[in-house]
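Work package 3, deliverable 3.1, input record:
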Amino acid sequence: MTDPLWQILWHMVPLSLASFGGGPAIIAGLDVMVRQNGWIAPQDFLHLFAISRAAPGPGTTLATLIGWRLAGWTGATLASLAIYLPSSLVCYLVYRATSRHRDRKWHRAMREGLAPVGTGLVISGSIALIQISGNGWAGPAISVGAFLIFQGLPRIPAVLVLMAGGAASLLLAALS
Amino acid sequence: MRDTRTDPAPVPAGALFLTCLKVGSLSFGGGLTGWLHREFVQRRGWVSDDDFSATLAIAQVLPGANVVNLVVCLGEELRGPLGAAACVTGFLLPPVLSVLGLALLFDRLGQFPAVEIAMLGIACAALGMLLQICWLGLRRAKGSPRRLAVIAAVVVGVTVLKLPMILVVLLVAPVSVWLVWRRG
């Protein structure tokens, strides 16, 4: 049972199924898992965390990197499957079971009632992101600028706006 | 922007795969929900804004990475099991590969401060897409005290009172759904 591949499965599948709260819950769980098992040094964990943030996609790819450190490419593949597959299956089954009743009154009420809850969650998430982006007024200014560009030019490729944001950040840091 | 359709027609699995592959490849700096909203609601009109927000709430409550759950639900909605598989595969393949590529690269090169500053700017710009969802949701809620109250309750619960998100959703969602149900 000390085989690293077993260890990955044994720890990550339960984390996937219990990760209520999404990405932050998974990352916190991985942190605890790595500490308790002494898998990798804390500095290396932070390093991997930074890499997972620099790549596109969800920050939970941190799990992939931990698997990679523990057992190479096989570990990376297994960790990715262990962290994403179980929760995706649960989500799929729950969503499918409820959406069969699309035309029922309760389902319409559910969708219409959940929509503002979703909006509230995105607003809360945006506030949290603005708070941790720090860096004085530059960060929020870039966010608002990007928002105005997205609103004004709906057809503009998002990548262009993101690259402009990165350039603006470098420029502002150089000037200050 | 098309915002009226509530019963989406099936979308080819290939189109779902490619769209998710695009978001998965390009979504530097986070803000993935914003990316998905942009592609699925604003650009292609595959789902309505309201359905997107409702699906998002479901995806957030269930365990697992929220955006991955969201992609699974959108795929199921638009093309059944095949769509869900196409979406989640396309969505995760590029990030998993690029994170490994970056790890190999950084292990050789070390880290540069300029990269971090640029990444922060990219993340802030990506936040602009999330602000769009906020804006649309608030604009739709204009003139509906019920919607405004629900949004306010969630924001106060999560941001001001710092309650766990799951708890806030479990408290507010049933009330919100009941208010719609009662109206008939």
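Chain B touches chain A through 104 residues (CB under 8 Å).
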